[in-house]
Design goal:
676 residues; alpha+beta; Thrombin, subunit H; six-stranded antiparallel barrel; four-stranded mixed beta sheet; 31 strands; flat
Length: 676
C-alpha cells in the first residue's frame, strides 16, 4: 500500500499491508508492522518527484469523465490546483503527462480537466491514478507554466514544458553576433529561410520552388518536368509554338489521328474504308490471278488458266458469242456436229433442200393457203385461241367465264333480275346486308344499331334528351369539365415549405418519398396553398402541372393516404382569375360527412366496399358512408346488376324502356330507307 492510503484518523489505521495493528495486536506483529511502514515510506522516497495525494481520509478514487478529464468524490482543489503537473496512469492508457487546466468543486465532486503533452485517457479505463508533481510550496503555483514567460518572475522557476515551448517558438533578435557555421547548425524549412531573408530566396535540391530569370546551362533532367511551358494535352488543343509536349500527349495525339484516319478504296462501283489503326488491307487475287507479298512488294500474276493473245492454250468448256466475235477459217468438217436435222431430214452444213419435209409445229410464217384437208381435235394440241372463234370479239379471259355453267346463261340472268321488296326476300338476306355495308341495321328485332368502320353525317345539334349528340357538341361540353387529381397525402397543419416536404418527412402519418404529390391546404399564409412535389432535400416546388391559379381553380383532389385525410376529396374554391402568390388558395372537403342518427346496422368492409346487414336501418336524418363507392350489387334486391350496368343509368332523364321503344321504331325506319 502507499502512504497516501493511510487514514488521518489514527483509530482507522488497523492494518498495514495485511499485518494486524489493531488494539491488542500480537507482539510478534509489532516488528512486522514497523517493517511494512518503513517500506511504504521508502517507496515514497523512491518516487519523490510524484505523489498520489489522497482526500485526507483514505485513498482517492479518480473516475474517468472524458478523454481529458476526471471526477473525484471530494474537494481536492487545494492540492490539485490549476497549472500543477500531473502524471496519469491507467491499464489501457499507460503513463501520460500534462498539467491541470481547470479545477472546480461542485458538491459532491471535484472535476479536473487536463492538458496533456501527448495522449488521452483511454475509454477502457473507468478509473485511473493521478499523481501530482513533488514541487509544492506556497504560493499555490510554485512552478510557472507559461509558454510565453509572460509573468517574467524573478523568483519562480518555469516548467520544463514552458521553457521548451518558449525557446522553440519565441522570437529573438540577434545583433552584432557571429555564428561559426563550422561548429553550429542552422536548421529550418526553405520557407522559413526565405521569410527571414530580406533580399533573396533559397532554392533547394529537394524542395519545390519557382525560378525566375534564371539560365540553366546544359541541364540534365532525370525526372518528370512540369509548369505552364510543359503541356500534357492529348489533343494538342493549345497548339503552342513555344511549349513542350509530353511523351504521353504526343503518343495519344498520334494514335488518335491514326485511329481517326481511313484509307478509302474504290473499285469503280463501291467504296471501302480501311481503318489505318486497327484494320489490314488485303490484296488478293481472283480467278486466274495470283498475289504474293514479299518485303515491301505485292506482286500480281496470271496463272496457267488464263488465255493470252500471244500464247498457245487449249480452251475447255468456253462459250464465244457469235454476235460480238468472228470465227474464221473453221471448216464444217472441223465441227463436232456438221449436220442438222429438220423433221427427220438430215441436211449437211453448207448444203440445201428445195422441199424439206418437217412438222407444222416447227414452222413459222407458213402460208395458210398451203393448208388443205381437215384438222382433227387430236391434231390441235393445246387448243385454238378464242379470238379465232366466231367473230373474234371474245377474248380468252371472257371465254373462260362459261366454265361451270349448268344451264342457259340468259335464262339465269333474267331470273336474277327480279326485284325483291324486302331484304328477307333475297336468297341470303345476311349476304345482301354485308354486300351493302349495312351490317345489322336492317334487322328490326334488335334495338341496337351497329356501324363498323362507318360514320353518320349531317346530324344537327341536339335539342331534346333523346337526340343524338354530334362530336362538336360533346367536345364543347367536355371542355368545361375538370378531371380529378391524385395526391399521395394532404397536410393537416401549416408546414415549412423550405424544408418540410423533403424525402423522409412525415405528413399526416405518411413518410414522403421524392416525387410524391402533396396537397398543401392548411398554410397560415393561404397564398402558399396548392399542389407540391416532395424533393430529396431543400425547398419544395409547386407541381408543374398545377402551378397557376387557372390550373388549380375548380380542381378536385383525391387523397390516397393519411391518418386523417385518407380517401378524402377536396375542391379548390378559388376563382380562376386570380394571381399565384397574391390570391388566397382555399380547399373545401367535398367528401360527405355523417349526419343524423343510425341504429341497428351491421357494417362490414371488404376492400373499398361496405356492406350493411342485420336489422332495418332507421334514420332521423341523412345516412352518408364516407367511402369511395357502394357496390351496385349491394343496392336493391337484385344482385345480378353489375357496377358497369349500373353506370348505364348515368344521364337517363325518363323511362328507359319508353326511350328504347321509341328509338327502336325510328331506327328501323332509317335502316329500311338505307337498305332500299
Amino acid at each position: 500500500m502507499t502512504v497516501s492510503s493511510y487514514s488521518t484518523t489514527a483509530s482507522s489505521n488497523t492494518a498495514i499491508n495485511g499485518v494486524n495493528i489493531s488494539e491488542g495486536m500480537s507482539p510478534s506483529d509489532v516488528n512486522n508492522a514497523i517493517r511494512e511502514q518503513l517500506k511504504d515510506v521508502r517507496s515514497v522516497w523512491n518516487d519523490k518527484e510524484w505523489f498520489l495525494l489522497g482526500d485526507g481520509d483514505g485513498t482517492t478514487t479518480f473516475t474517468r469523465a472524458s478523454a481529458t478529464s476526471i471526477t473525484v468524490a471530494a474537494d481536492i482543489t487545494s492540492t490539485h490546483h490549476v497549472g500543477r503537473r500531473v502524471k496519469v496512469i491507467g491499464s489501457n492508457t499507460g503513463t501520460i503527462f500534462g498539467k491541470i487546466a481547470t479545477s472546480a468543486y461542485s458538491s459532491p465532486n471535484t472535476t479536473l480537466t487536463f492538458t496533456f503533452d501527448s495522449g488521452t485517457i483511454n475509454s477502457g479505463d473507468t478509473t485511473v491514478s493521478v499523481y501530482v508533481g513533488s514541487v509544492f510550496t506556497n504560493p499555490a503555483n510554485p512552478v510557472v507554466d507559461e509558454d510565453n514567460m509572460a509573468s517574467d518572475s524573478a523568483i519562480l522557476p518555469p516548467s520544463q514544458q514552458s521553457t521548451k515551448a518558449f525557446v522553440t517558438s519565441g522570437t529573438v533578435t540577434l545583433s552584432n553576433k557571429s555564428i561559426a557555421l563550422g561548429s553550429n547548425t542552422l536548421s529550418g524549412t526553405t520557407a522559413q529561410f526565405n521569410s527571414a531573408l530580406s533580399d533573396g530566396s533559397f532554392a533547394t535540391l529537394a524542395g519545390t520552388e519557382t525560378l525566375t530569370n534564371k539560365t540553366l546551362t546544359s541541364p540534365v533532367l532525370n525526372t518528370a518536368i512540369s509548369g505552364t511551358a510543359f503541356k500534357d494535352e492529348d489533343d494538342m488543343s493549345s497548339d503552342s509554338a513555344t511549349a513542350v509536349a509530353s511523351q504521353q500527349s504526343i503518343k495519344a495525339y498520334v494514335d488518335s489521328q491514326l485511329t481517326a484516319q481511313d484509307l478509302d478504296i474504290s473499285d469503280g462501283s463501291s467504296t471501302i474504308a480501311i481503318d489505318l489503326d486497327s484494320e489490314t488491307l488485303g490484296l488478293l487475287g481472283g480467278t486466274g490471278i495470283d498475289s504474293t507479298a514479299s518485303g515491301n512488294n505485292v506482286t500480281f500474276a496470271i496463272d496457267s488458266t488464263v488465255a493470252t493473245l500471244t500464247g498457245s492454250q487449249t480452251l475447255t468448256n468456253k462459250t464465244i458469242s457469235g454476235s460480238s466475235n468472228t470465227l474464221s477459217n473453221i471448216a464444217n468438217s472441223s465441227l463436232a456436229n456438221s449436220t442438222v436435222s429438220y423433221g427427220g431430214v438430215s441436211l449437211a452444213l453448207g448444203a440445201s433442200d428445195a422441199t424439206p419435209a418437217f412438222d407444222l409445229q416447227d414452222a413459222t410464217s407458213y402460208p395458210a393457203s398451203a393448208l388443205t384437208g381437215t384438222v382433227s381435235n387430236s391434231q390441235l394440241g393445246t387448243g385454238i385461241d378464242a379470238t379465232k372463234v366466231a367473230d373474234g370479239s371474245v377474248t380468252n379471259a371472257e371465254f373462260q367465264f362459261i366454265n361451270t355453267l349448268s344451264s342457259n346463261a340468259q335464262t339465269q340472268l333474267d331470273a336474277k333480275v327480279a326485284k325483291a321488296s324486302n331484304l328477307s326476300d333475297l336468297a341470303s338476306a345476311s349476304t345482301a346486308r354485308s354486300n351493302l355495308g349495312l351490317g345489322t341495321m336492317a334487322v328490326q328485332n334488335s334495338a341496337t344499331v351497329s356501324i363498323s368502320g362507318g360514320t353518320i353525317t349531317g346530324l344537327s345539334t341536339p335539342s331534346n334528351n333523346s337526340d343524338v349528340a354530334i362530336k362538336s357538341y360533346v367536345d364543347d361540353a367536355v371542355a368545361g369539365l375538370r378531371t380529378r387529381t391524385i395526391a399521395e397525402v394532404a397536410t393537416t397543419a401549416n408546414v415549412n415549405l423550405s424544408n418540410g416536404l423533403e424525402a423522409g418527412d412525415t405528413i399526416d402519418g405518411v413518410t414522403l418519398v421524392a416525387g410524391d404529390r402533396v396537397l398543401v391546404k392548411d398554410q397560415s399564409t393561404a397564398t402558399e396553398n396548392g399542389l407540391y412535389l416532395a424533393v430529396s432535400s431543400g425547398a419544395a416546388s409547386r407541381d408543374p402541372e398545377h402551378d397557376t391559379i387557372a390550373e388549380l381553380s375548380g380542381g378536385m383532389v383525391v387523397v390516397n393516404q393519411g391518418s386523417t385525410n385518407d380517401n378524402k376529396i377536396f375542391l379548390c374554391t378559388t376563382d380562376s382569375d386570380g394571381s399565384l402568390g397574391s390570391t388566397n388558395i382555399t380547399y373545401t372537403q367535398v367528401t360527405p360527412s355523417n349526419t343524423g342518427t343510425v341504429t341497428s346496422i351491421g357494417l362490414t368492409q371488404s376492400g373499398s366496399e361496405f356492406s350493411i346487414s342485420g336489422s332495418p336501418v332507421t334514420s332521423a336524418g341523412n345516412i352518408t358512408l364516407d367511402v369511395n363507392r357502394i357496390s351496385a350489387t349491394k343496392i336493391g334486391g337484385n344482385s345480378n346488376v353489375s357496377d358497369t350496368e349500373y353506370g348505364f343509368l348515368d344521364g337517363v332523364t325518363s323511362s328507359i324502356q319508353t326511350q328504347i321503344d321509341a328509338k327502336a321504331g325510328a331506327g328501323f325506319a332509317v335502316a329500311m330507307a338505307i337498305a332500299l
